[in-house]
Amino acid sequence: MKLLLNDESIIKEINSYLQELNGFIVSENNKTDIEQLAKCVSQIHSYDLHQSNLPLYNSQWVINQITNKDNCKYKNDIICALEMMSKMENYNPSVKLKFDDKKFLTWDMSNSNWHNEYKTGHIGNYVWDIAVILNYVNNPLFSDTFLESYINYSNKKLTLILLYINLYYIQVVEAVMNDNLKIIMPTTKEILNNNTFKTEIISYETLSRLQILGY
Question: Structure pTM?
């Protein structure tokens, strides 16, 4: 669905889904609630917002957040890791698939909650939105149900590399917001030394069961 800048009906639809999302408290959801939450997020992601003028969250935006930090001894390493992640995000050797980076992002990082309405939001890759939700809840059982439901409702392709890359973006942004870049350095060093990192947010069993593997 194409969103024209004057298409108030689509903005109204997104706002109605956001109102539904704001009825969920992610830390207290049971399996049924998580399934409905994932369905609502996938519905919002079904809109193509290429013509929207909302701010864009992507790897360059994250790099800019680090670049603007003054007198930070970790800055160069983090930027280098972000640039590596960005190259990997845009490289797919097995299939020629363009990942759309113009979806409405349902989670408001600045307030650690769902967005209230369209006009206050941002757009970006749908995997960014999935990653920020999983990272906030930080519970493998939630991740399992949410990812399975999202895949079923959206029919979108999720890959291991894209999930991990966007998790790193989110964690860097959080480190900037908390003015504590040191906390992201263990992960940054893993990326620089091994081109990958480990996370407990999504279990191996979930990745295997849902066939979220490789590129």
Answer: 0.91
